[in-house]
């Protein structure tokens, strides 16, 4: 009986370790390090790219858009040593997500 309990525990532990390794792999939704989008900016920003920049879904609520914008701008504001190009892209992403600017239009 004790041997069966040990074998069962070993079986469960093996599968738990395999699941942990699979879920902690880079690119997994549960990994500690978030996989970042590889590639540059599109010539004209669309809603998908705006959502990627802000780290949100395209259907995000207004409050989440504003919170994400604020959080990202704190880290990238030109007055704090950030890039003015990135700050402009972050602002454009917020405007597109909030519907203040049409995707692909020049302002």
TrEMBL record:
Q: What is its main location?
A: mitochondrion
The processes (GO biological process) annotated in the record are: protein import into mitochondrial matrix
Topology of this chain in the membrane: Single-pass membrane protein
Keyword Cytoplasm on this protein?
Answer: no
Where in this chain does the record put each J domain? 49-102
Q: Where in the cell is it found?
A: Mitochondrion inner membrane
Keywords of this protein's UniProt record, alphabetized? Answer: Membrane, Mitochondrion, Mitochondrion inner membrane, Transmembrane, Transmembrane helix
Q: Which PROSITE patterns does UniProt cross-reference here?
A: DNAJ_2
Q: What does this protein do?
A: Component of the PAM complex, a complex required for the translocation of transit peptide-containing proteins from the inner membrane into the mitochondrial matrix in an ATP-dependent manner.
User: What interactions and quaternary structure are annotated?
Assistant: Probable component of the PAM complex at least composed of a mitochondrial HSP70 protein, TIMM44 and TIMM14. The complex interacts with the TIMM23 component of the TIM17:23 complex.
Q: Hey, which family's this protein in? A: Belongs to the TIM14 family.
Protein name, per record? J domain-containing protein
Q: Identify the species of origin.
A: Chlamydomonas eustigma
